[in-house]
């Protein structure tokens, strides 16, 4: 016989996160109760052991889904306790990061496979440049914003949406990265180069690059071949570009001072313990980054 004390009851956020992990892209999660939030609340007040959770209101639902790759597709009963309750959530490709990550370093030359084999030239930042601060970051595909510093003191630098693989590139069997590397593709980047050959390779090698990593898209995967990898990268690029416009916290961070400020002002935002030679980095809570971006806009 099962009793309430022996049941495994996950907290609301953990249960929703677990369900999200089981979904394919565009999959749906449906939360419903025909008698509404008020009915369940009264049951909870009478017996919180057997009925440990409440149906969410609008504020609670926003909080529960904030860092999950879920969009609200449809809802009823969020504002009324007595109406039938139904919420439909659709899985999207990008989750907003609870702790965005800023990186600045000089672009290193890679294997040339991004442009030559795949048609997506990348700017590479090895993790060793950041005192191995990236070692605890899960490998995978991320998105956010990027700035190339062409010359000191520039004030009109363009901020590009970007997608980055952070990991070891396992598809290139025998040529995997020997350390974790950030391989960033700048969406819409138009290199200032004199020749077609230079344009195909990009002109950012040796230039300082700023990245503000704001969203996580998927784990790093090993594909069966380059055609499959190239097709998936094209999808990743499309998803990152859409997220930069459609997901509000990601869109808002385009104006963060770390992307816009002069080089000499960077220590004001990153702290002296997060600076190493030509590199600096910073990880912080999303709300802190958003507050700083809003302050700059004002």
From TrEMBL:
SUPFAM superfamilies documented for this protein: Riboflavin kinase-like (SSF82114)
A Pfam family that the UniProt record links to this protein: Flavokinase
Top EC class, one word: transferase
EC number per UniProt: 2.7.1.26
Keywords: ATP-binding, Flavoprotein, FMN, Nucleotide-binding, Transferase
Gene Ontology terms: biological process: FMN biosynthetic process; riboflavin biosynthetic process
Annotated pathway: Cofactor biosynthesis; FMN biosynthesis; FMN from riboflavin (ATP route): step 1/1
GO molecular function: ATP binding; riboflavin kinase activity
PANTHER family with a match to the protein in the record: RIBOFLAVIN KINASE, RIBOFLAVIN KINASE/FMN ADENYLYLTRANSFERASE
Entry protein name: riboflavin kinase
């Amino acid at each position: 016989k099962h009793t309430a004390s022996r049941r495994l009851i996950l907290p609301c956020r953990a249960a929703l996160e677990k369900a999200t992990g089981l979904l394919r892209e565009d999959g749906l999660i449906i939360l419903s109760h025909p008698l509404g939030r008020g009915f369940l609340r009264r049951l909870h007040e009478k017996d919180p052991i057997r009925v440990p959770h409440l149906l969410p209101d609008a504020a609670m639902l926003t909080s529960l889904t904030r860092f999950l790759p879920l969009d609200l597709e449809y809802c009823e009963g969020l504002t009324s306790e007595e109406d039938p309750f139904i919420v439909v959530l659709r899985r999207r490709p990008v989750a907003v990061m609870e702790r965005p990550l800023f990186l600045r370093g000089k672009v290193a030359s890679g294997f040339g496979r991004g442009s030559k084999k795949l048609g997506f030239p990348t700017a590479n930042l090895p993790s060793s440049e950041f005192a191995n601060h990236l070692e605890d970051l899960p490998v995978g595909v991320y998105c956010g914003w990027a700035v190339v510093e062409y010359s000191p003191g520039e004030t009109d630098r363009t901020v590009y949406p970007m997608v980055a693989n952070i990991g070891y590139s396992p598809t290139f069997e025998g040529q995997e990265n020997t350390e974790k590397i950030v391989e960033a593709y700048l969406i819409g980047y138009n290199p200032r180069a004199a020749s077609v050959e230079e344009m195909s390779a990009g002109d950012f090698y040796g230039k300082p690059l700023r990245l503000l990593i704001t969203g996580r898209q998927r784990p790093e995967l090993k594909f069966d071949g380059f055609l499959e990898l190239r097709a998936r990268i094209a999808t990743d690029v499309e998803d990152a570009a859409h997220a930069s416009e459609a997901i509000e916290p990601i869109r808002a961070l385009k104006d963060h001072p770390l992307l816009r400020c002069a080089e000499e002002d960077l220590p004001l935002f990153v702290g002296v313990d997060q600076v190493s030679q030509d590199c600096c980095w910073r990880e912080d809570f999303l709300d802190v980054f958003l507050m700083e971006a809003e302050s700059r806009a004002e």
